[in-house]
Amino acid sequence: MFLQSVHLALRTIARNKLRSVLTLLGVIIGVAAVVALVTIGRGARERIRSELAGMGTHLIFVFAGMVPDPSSPSVVEAQPLTNEQFNGLAKILGARTTVAALAASRLRVSHGGRSISAPVTGVNQSYFALREWTLERGRLLSPLETASNASVCVIGSKVAKSLFGQENAIGARIRVGQIHCRVVGELAARGATFSGGQDTLVLLPLGLFQTRLSGKAYVDQILIGLHGDASIAPTKLRVMEEMRRLRRIGPARNDDFQVDDMTEYMHRASSVIDNVTALLSSIAAISLLVGGIGIMNIMLVSVSERTREIGIRMAIGARENDILVQFLTEASVLSLLGGLIGIGLGLTVAWAATVFMEISFVPDLKAIAFITAISIMIGMIFGLFPALRGARLDPIEALRHE
Predict the structure, then answer these.
(1) Residue pLDDT, tens place only, 265-285
(2) With a threshold of 0.70, does the pTM exceed it?
(3) What is the DSSP code (8-state) at residue 214?
(4) I want to staple 138 with a disulfide (CB 3.0 to 4.6 A). Which of 46, 185, 279, 393 is the partner?
């Protein structure tokens, strides 16, 4: 009986192809949008997790925070971190950690008449031990160069291409802000990442950046890498206690700095993406309601057009339940077809978007199964009223209908 109802529903849909397609557009668009957004969001979350994990799961970040302004309801940026605070942390944390510092600014970088704006970052030698830099050619800064503030630098692949084209940049001198430095290394191309664009970086000694470019003994961030059996939680607590002492923060004052670890970054990033995906999917799901209303409308038209057919079926023995099941099946099949087409369209759009965005294509099978079930439910819910209307027709009146 059920298979016969499905077969009859498919025949009815096939007889009115254009009308059926137009009816399904709302369901198709809604399902496609939800599937595409969920898939893209899942891929973006996996990309972020992968990149953050690639930076090292045993990393702690220290940077200046925001503090309340007594003269206004707003908050102001706290005093930046200093070399003394960086050195103090490096001294107290000991051999089971690697402590690095960086300071950055966007400056003009030029060579031979070509000029670009690039993020210029001053780093100490320990910084290279915490980052997995891959070189295209040349080398990284040496300990002697970082210690003596030598005028040397390492550049990203996009910087090299913009300034040198196909020429080898190693050994050439470029202008960074108001100084000149010799290129000793070129980083391999990596593409845009959550942690920043490695391809557009210019790395040079921290001391050189502070004395010749910024003119201040400040650092923007302190990185702490843990080794061996060192654990995150007690190290973070120790860092916070030492930073309060170094920044002379009294017991009654709040911290004017932040201490985070990679796990927190992963959780925050995933939470933001999940919330945005859920919000956009909820908005897109409104199209499903519109599609459901369209199905109800077309089923009411179908009941009206097939009134005489319903009367004949009742006259030869069909019961109300048979008519009810028939129209519910037709509405459910119609909605399911829209859901399946929408899933295919959504996955296609998501695949194209992930290729363009350079993120993983990771379909969520549970979400696809759920949206398929929702499609069937929409057909049943919005097809119930037309089905009841058809099932409750008076057989005699239905047979007299023209």
Answers:
(1) 677 777 887 788 778 777 777
(2) no
(3) I
(4) 185
